[in-house]
Amino acid sequence: MNSEKGEIARRYREHTGRKLTLILAGIALLLVITVLSISTGSADIPPADVIRTLAGQSVSVTLDSIIWNVRLPQVLTAIVAGAGLAVAGVVMQSILRNPLGSPFTLGISNAAAFGAAFSVIILGAGSTSSQLGDAVTINSPYVTTIAAFVFAMLVTLVILAFSRIRGTSPEVMILVGVAMGSLFTAGTMFLQYFADDVQLASMVFWTFGDTSRASWDELILITVIVAASIIYFTLNRWKYNAIDAGDETAKGLGVNVEKVRLWGMMCASFVTAIIVAFLGVIGFVGLICPHMARRIIGDDHRFLITGSIVIGSLLLLSADTAARVLMQPYQLPVAVLTSFLGAPTFIYLILRGKRI
Amino acid sequence: MILEVNGIEFQYKSKEVLKDIRFHLEKNEILSILGPNGVGKTTLLKCMNAILKPKSGTILVDKEDVLKLEQIEVARRMGYVPQRCEPARLTAFDAVLLGRMPHMKWNITPEDVMLVEATIKKLHLEDMALRYIDELSGGELQKVGIARAIAQNPKLLLLDEPTSSLDLRNQLEILDTVREVVRKENVSAIMTMHDLNLALRYSDKFLFLKNGTIFAAGTMADITPQIIQEVYGVPVTIQNYMDVAVVIPTHTA
Fold first, then answer.
1. In chain A, what residues touch B129 (CB-CB under 8 Å)?
2. In its keyword annotation, does this UniProt entry include Nuclease (chain A) (predicted)?
């Protein structure tokens, strides 16, 4: 039918152009929600004032303080954490060839939370401040991050070993994930048993992920790691496409599948570990955001990685804003909301069967 | 001579699978690897492009030793089509574009896109170019897999049972496609086959494996009912029907 030269290529470029447009629309939406999110809270600020303050024109000292010290860090944390969890999820799904893969469903988040709690309670990397009861000040973020990463990696290696022995069928992976998740939840409970009252209260920290905890310094550290991982994953986007076509096809295309799998999992686990260490466990974002992105722009990682990042940021920021407003004057930890969203989605994905 | 295989041995966990495999292939030839289940046909095919590493031996493609090349260098010389291509939410065009991967630096170029379009036309896949491959039938998906391998611009195509799980019409279409490509594109092809009649119909050369080594090899003229009976353990006769050789089992229950 299309015998004219260049016709199919032209239609193909239109097709990829549409995907690019969708991503740009998502980014625009994210900017709007960012402004709206900063303006909502216990004290409502008009969006115009938010934009003016962000542009560097001081409206009032109080507004400056609220926006720069309270709202903006929290909003940026939600955006960065959402992006990090979503990108970790999308890469895990690809390299494990498993639609149910994500930091949370594979038990990696729980292991990282245990590692972070372990570093604070046993290694003394943090101090608990009793006047708030639910807050932990992490004195040595590097020790905490490394501890979280070590335990996250431990689970990752178990999962990679299982995928070698038993294949990467969704059932096996998820069962291993459940086992690992329970093991480390039990480990955290074990630590709790020996903790004093203040420590005990503070350990709830890692059970309910919350974006309002990160300081500017912590936010910068998380951002650097998330950004570096996004660059790494983007450089490997074609390899993930090749692995999606099957291990043998990928090898036939010159991809060192084992190496891509190991480094990809390590990188995704590291991102998960740092987010969990500072914010606690935020479940399901890494699972559902990639699937929403797959629905909208397909499985091509050239667009899927960016698409998942945008949707991850959008979802976590929206959920975070909702969590701030829903039960005023109380702020809900955002993880409670994502779990309410995520659990039904997870069941829906299982019900829909093999092709998700 | 495009391919020269010398003394390939392959072990799987200290169990010898292949031993003393030697054969060669000329340009524009199709070779079928034949033999019973589990004899190592697919293993041999995967040794050709070093997806599996043989314990010893050499594989020369255009006088270059495959086993000494980087995997990506091998991918520039050989296209591999597995028995089953995994479907994903990608268009057929995206899937074929993946074949340009061994040749690209950071991203595709406009030349890659034009080359993929040309490949799609060559295989008459225009109608499905922008369809998602998770909506294609088994035969269509197999053609996309072959198109991807051809987009690699290889000297040698490796096909693992290209006709398994396809209906009669698709079996013929796939093998017609392979033959057309081999004749026109200056490549050669090696395929593992179960269906003897299809193999006889479409191949120039044959390799019969038995007990992990070559039992017989040659062209159509070298194939006798005795060879097939020895390899498969079933008595057969070979008849000619309108210039097509047909293997008919004479075994009765």
1. 8, 11-12
2. no
